[in-house]
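Shipment paperwork, digital attachment
Item: protein structure file
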Amino acid sequence: MTGHYASPKPDTFQDMAALALDVGLFTSEFRLCDTIAEYLADIVAQSHEDPARYANFSSQMINEIVELAFRSAGPGGNIDFNLLKSEARVRVSIGFPHDGRNALAWEKLKQSDVTDGQHPAHSLLMLSDAIRVDFHSGTDGDDRVTLTADFDLRESGR
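Attachment content:
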């Protein structure tokens, strides 16, 4: 569910869409969460082999990720939304600055680390497990978090 893939040949992703917003603008307009999440979720769902059924799953998951970024973004800088596609997956990646106080909490986020419900991504990890989406986070230096969700394009027998 989390972490890097064990495959000897990792997916090669192609850019589908990208959006960068000033964090101040993004956090001043909560309605942007819904607008951005809906746009990204529509593309993810349409990429799936069963778009009608997958629309609810992708919408709920992406909405939670965008709202987590909204609540967790530190002041200043940009928040980046990226949508990428490989042969097997669509990846939603959201990068944002954080205040640096809890950088370790975002590194190599694991379900076992957040079972107490105190971590900001607790409910998101539970949701990703339930709908079989690979979700992970990481830090870039001391001041940036990236949240990543990989959505399978086809159902699998996991």
